[in-house]
Amino acid sequence: MSDPTPESPEHEKTKAPGSPEEITRKLEDFIKNTLGGQVLFTRVEGPGGRPIPDGEEKPVQDARPDNGRVFEFNYRPADIKAHLDRFVIRQDEAKKVLATAVCDHYHHARMLRDDRASDSGGPRLEFSKQNVIIIGPTGVGKTYLVKHIADLIGVPFVKADATKFSETGYVGADVDDLVRDLVAKANGDIELAEHGIIYLDEIDKLSSGPERIGRDVSGRGVQTTLLKLMEETEVALYAPNDIRSQMQMMFDTRKGRTGREVVNTRNILFIVSGAFGGLEKIIEKRTNRKSIGFVSADTKESPAEYLFREARTKDFIDYGFEAEFIGRLPVRVVCDPLSADDMFQIMKNSEGSLIRQYEREFAAYGVKAVFQDDALREIAHRAEEEKTGARGLVTAWERVLRDFKFEMPSLELPELLIDAALVTNPELTLVRCRAEAASQFRERGAAHAGEVRAFAERFQRENGFTLEFDSDAIAAVAARAQREGMHVEALCAKLFKDYPFGLKLVTRSTGETRFTITADAVAHPDRFVSELVVNACRSHPAAPASPIIDLTPDTPSHES
Q1: Which of 63, 394, 437, 461 satisfies CB 3.0 to 4.6 Å to 411 for a cystine?
Q2: Closest CA relative to residue 276, chosen from 176, 407, 138, 149
Q3: 3-class DSSP state for residue 199?
Q4: Phi/psi zone of residue 19: left (φ > 0), alpha (ψ -120 to 50 degrees), beta?
Q5: Where are the beta strands (DSSP E) in 173-301?
């Protein structure tokens, strides 16, 4: 017996209210909308395949390509650095170290796969993971570096703040959720997720100094639970203590999964970062060097930056990290603070420049924003004073452009020149923009008034009635013509096409041939002429008035 087709009665029964399929669909919607916003895992057809549509029942197969190779990596360190140079200004040393570490990690992962696939019987290859720790102040591009590396090589990327996690059994997220999030980013492709990148920011907040009292569930405890992930372990795809995960497992098991899948972290690259405020004092104490006077006058490095480059494992242990934890982060990278010139280069040359964002925001209202170099340099100096790295650029620009972003869409100016004068005195520049907009409005108003007069003259020649548009009516016509994308004369012809018939009735009752058109007539032309007719009939009840139907040439008369 054939399977029910989408048009068959049997198929309709499976979708009937109360059927197992209908209940399953409602439960899945409940998980998606109530227990976390989205279903974590989507089953796919093989590594990197398309998601299987709901209701399509296919057994899960091991669809690995030859040699089990699911992720190819063919980049050189120079390729990765060249890509990062397009988005991140300066940080050359950090780019080189990160590019080299990433290449080493994924090339070793490939070699290990090839070694297991060959099954030669000889000694197995050993591989020490090159997890990375990045040290640097806020806003210097730490996250940006890692994100663009992941985008380039095509692996899933998960970023999280270390402060959101706690040791298992306490309030807070479980570190194993990071691995499950990789699977979600990989659209359910476990094998691709096993080659992803996990990035933990604010790792310095996990340090447990001697002043901490009591059970440290978000510091030392998280370090301990991260140890197994950073080396090699297997994480269950479904969290045993999460109701959403367990319900998802139930649905996926029904569709063909075993419910016992695990994710191996052997080839997952872990990168952590933090500002590490106070670490320089520990280094200074160890080296017996003062932070003032030992840096040469011609170097751009600050004392803290210079000291960070001499950080040793013992310094991190004294800072409050477990020796086992910091030992699993062998690659150390120091990011440089950004100077005003660096800020200028970020705005001028970076492909992810904030200037491109502002240009799009103004362009959405038909305004072309033109940024001059002198304005960029002035903002760069202000951002440097914020001490928040590239994030200070947003703060500095928002203070300057806040009122312009509010008023420029209404001023209807085609262009905004953003130069040093605007940055230095935005209030004066805004006053000038308002004056320019008012001048252009008057010019447009004069042109619109001429077009309205031309229509009124033609209307008088053709119908014998004089229409006098007041100033508010002219403005209303101009605004409506712009809103509807029509010429003024064409709009007037459309609005007042029925006025000859109505005005004839008014003239028969009152003898009046001159009429004043107001803004209300522009907004509601039919209602306006109807009120004229009614008022005329009320004010002259004895005057003979013919029905409006008599004024229509092709309509027969109803008079007896």
Answers
A1: 437
A2: 138
A3: strand
A4: beta
A5: 197-201, 234-236, 262-264, 269-274
Strand duo 269-274 + 466-469: pairing: unpaired
Is residue 228 left, alpha or beta, with left meaning phi > 0 and alpha meaning psi from -120 to 50?
Answer: alpha
Of the candidates 400, 328, 320, 321, the residue with the CA atom closest to the CA atom of residue 358: 400
Which residue, 519, 458, 469, 446, is CA-closest to 493?
A: 458
Please give the pLDDT value at position 374.
Answer: 95
Bigger pLDDT: 388 vs 550: 388
pLDDT of residue 297: 44
How far is it, in rounded angstroms, from Cα 440 to Cα 446? 10
| Residue 502, Cβ density class (10 Å: 0-12 exposed, 13-18 middle, ≥19 buried) | buried
With b meaning 16 or more CB within 10 Å and e meaning fewer, what string describes 430-466? beebeeebeeeeeeeeeebbebbeebbeebeeebebe
> Do 444 and 411 form a contact (C-beta atoms < 8 A)?
no
Bridging pattern class, strands 368-371 and 157-161: unpaired
Written as six digits, the tokens of 52 are: 């299987």
Q: Are strands 234-236 and 262-264 parallel, antiparallel or unpaired?
A: antiparallel
Quote the CA–CA distance of 392 and 320 in Å, as a whole number. 30
pLDDT of residue 11: 47
Q: What is the CA radius of gyration of the chain?
A: 36
C-alpha 117/C-alpha 440 separation (Å) is: 75
101-152: pLDDT as tens digits: 999 999 888 888 877 777 666 566 777 788 999 998 888 888 889 999 989 9
Opening angle at CA 332, ends 328 and 337, nearest 5: 145
pLDDT tier for residue 247 given thresholds of 50, 70 and 90: low
**CB neighbour list of residue 169: distance below 8 Å, 6 or more residues apart:** none
Q: What are phi and psi of 310, to 5 degrees?
A: -105, 15
| 17 has pLDDT over 70 | no
Integer CA distances (angstroms), 476 to 157, 407, 439, 448, 520, in order = 54, 21, 18, 10, 9
Q: Quick one: pLDDT at residue 412?
A: 81
Give the residue ranges of DSSP H helices in 364-425.
373-386, 391-411, 420-424
Distance CA 235, CA 242 (A): 14
Cβ contact 445:475 at 8 Å? yes
Residue count of the chain: 560
- Cα–Cα distances in Å, from 260 out to 98, 253, 351, 458? 35, 9, 44, 84
What pLDDT is stored for residue 249 in this prediction? 65
Helices (H) and strands (E) in the chain, counts: 24, 11
Distance of alpha carbon 221 from alpha carbon 205, whole angstroms: 12
| Percent of residues, the chain, with pLDDT higher than 70 | 72
Q: What is the mean pLDDT of residues 189-216?
A: 76
Which pLDDT does position 277 carry in this prediction? 85
Compute φ and ψ for 2, nearest 5 degrees.
-75, 155
Q: Residue 415: which pLDDT band, with cuts at 50, 70 and 90?
A: very high
Q: Which of 158, 378, 188, 384 is nearest to 272 (CA)?
A: 158
